[in-house]
Amino acid sequence: MGPKKLLGVAAVLCGSVVLAGCSSGANPSPTETPAAGSTSTRPQPSTTATTALATQNLGVTDDVRAALLQAGATLKGLPESDFTGLEPGRTFYAYDAATAMYWAGAGLVPSQSSIQAQVSGQDDGAYLLFSRPANGTWTAYNDGLGGVAGATCPAPVPADVLALWNWPTDTCNPPPAPG
Questions:
Q1: For residue 9, what pLDDT is reported?
Q2: What are phi and psi of 107, to 5 degrees?
Q3: What does residue 58 show for φ and ψ, rounded to 5 degrees?
Q4: CB-based burial of residue 51 (10 Å sphere; 0-12 exposed, 13-18 middle, 19+ buried)?
């Protein structure tokens, strides 16, 4: 092989390596950095050939917690400061791919200094459901009776989400805590 042919082969090989690096198909999408000890606040694309998102449980970050608290306080007509947070062990958050909606369920913890918040957390206001479209705002629903037989759910939670949360079928409230 002559020097000109060797240079041509080397140029082709070098160009192939450069192009392979540019077109590897690795095009990472931006993701949110979750709070310590939690997962991302939005679903990540599946690793299959499709770009559809899967229905999945999501970690409740500080931002999600704050948004749910705000939506719940607004529903109850009280300032956020009348509540100290969300009930531990009874807060759920998921993305439903079939409806392209985010769903959450939570109870608000009333402040000891707010009689109105304490009263608002009884009976029908004891548990809240939340829904929001992607890039939308949360809508809160009172669901204190959602676990009672024959009660109508104010925001029917999709069956896939109920299954993820291990909630009984055709309900919209978590099962009672054991004990």
A1: 39
A2: -110, 140
A3: -130, 150
A4: exposed
